[in-house]
C-alpha cells in the first residue's frame, strides 16, 4: 500500500495542473485574442461604489487584474485593451470613484489607492459568494495591480497597502512628491515605490512625448529621475525585486487618430486601441502573464520579452520602441 501511494505521488508530481497548462507563454506577435474568450461583462454597485468586471470562461480560477483609470478617464478609453487582456486568462475589475458618468469630471479624483483596494476586496467577496457569477472563478491569491495616470499613482499607493500583490504596473503616474504637480498627499513618493519594489516586481512606463505635467520631454525626464530615486542609479544599488522602467519613444506613442477627438498619444499612450493596445498595454499583458500566470519564471518568453536583450525576438530592446530603459533586480 505504501508503495502504491509513493507511485501515485510521483505520477501526480509530473502531471501539470489544469490551471498551469491552460496558460500559454507570450508570443512576439500578440495581436490575437487569447483562448479565454469571450469575457462576460458585468456592472455591480456595492455600497455606492461601481465596479465594472470582465470574467472570461475558464475551467479553473483565473488570476485577478485590478485596473484604475486616469483623471477624466472612461471605461471606453481602456475597455478594448482590457477585454483583450482578459481573453488571455484574467478576471478584470475596474473601479470608479463616484460613478461611470461622474468620473469623467476633472473634479473627481483619487490618488491614495482606495478604489483599487476596494476592487480587490470586491473580487474576494464575489469569489466567496455562491450567488455571484464570479463564485470560485477567481484566484484571489494571484493579484496584479495596475493603472494609468491618476490610476497609476493609485496603483503605487495600493500596492504599498497590499504587499501580497504579485506585481504592480504603473503607467504614466503623476509626478513623485513631496512637491507637485500634484503635491502630496495627492502624489506618490520614491521611498514608497522602493518599499513596494521590495515586496513585488514593478513595471513603470512613460513616454518621451508625455507633456502632462511639463512640456515634453521634461515630464518623462522627471519620471525617470523618480524611478532612479526609488531603485538606485546603477543595477548594483538595488537589492529588491525585479523592476523595469520603459520610456517609450514618440514614434510608438504618437497620435494615431483612433480615438479622435480624444488624444491617445504621449501621456495617453496606454489608451491606444490598435493591435491589442500596443505598445504599453502589450507590456501590461506580458507583465501580468509573467507574474500572474508564470510565477515570474525567467525561462519563459514573457520574461525574455520584458527583460531580454536585442537578440530576443519581440523583446522591448529588440523592438527598439524605447528611448530609455532601466532594469533592476
Automatic annotation (TrEMBL):
InterPro entries with a match to the protein in the record: AB_hydrolase_fold, Chlorophyllase-like
The protein's matches in Pfam families, at most eight in alphabetical order, are given as: Chlorophyllase
Q: Does the keyword Membrane apply?
A: no
Span of the secretion signal? 1-20
Tell me if Chloroplast is a UniProt keyword of this record.
Answer: no
Keywords noted in UniProt: Signal
Q: Which residues form a coiled coil?
A: none
Q: What name does this protein carry?
A: Chlorophyllase
